[in-house]
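User: I'm new to structure prediction. If I give you an amino acid sequence, what do you actually give back? Let's try with this one:
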Amino acid sequence: MLNNSSQSMQKKLYEEYEDSLFRLVMYETAEKEGKALLEEKEKLKNDPAYIPSEEAVQKFSSQLDNILKRKKAYALRQKTFRILNRSAVAMLIVIILLFTTVASVKAIRVKVLNFFVDIQPKYTSYQVNETGNESGNGGPVVNWTKAYVPTYIPEGYKVSNTSNSETFKKLYLEISRIWLFYIRN
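Assistant: Good question. You get back a string of structure tokens that encode the predicted 3D arrangement of the chain. For your 185 residues, that looks like this:
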């Protein structure tokens, strides 16, 4: 048993010795190669045949500048896209909140709809008259409640018929026997 232990110890020490010897050889080789490369660098540095021309240096500098500009532009583009994505999400949230508010609160809904409806006094007039709703052309009488009836009918048109149902209130205007106009509740 003692002999077995001593052999394994010897084997282990021998392996460590080989590893150390290999490291030493590699270190010395790397040092020699490094010195040789430094000497070659100094020779090439001082040899005019290996010095790059001014034109080659400028070409290299311009290529390097172009590569750096492209990387900066790419980074700027990525940052811009991130900001735009965040802005789009924020705007989507604001729009959803606006539509939810408009849909649920009647007072705001009326104001928003009035903002989008373009009422021009020259073309739009809503009037409720208490005196009756006779057309000026001697046509039928329009007796509707909770509905708008035109107070002016252009020349050449006359009210030929009216109809009143739950879903529609119809006012028929006639010009040369052609039916033209519907009013929906």
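You can read the tokens as a compact description of the fold. Here is one thing that stands out. The longest helix spans residues 54-104.
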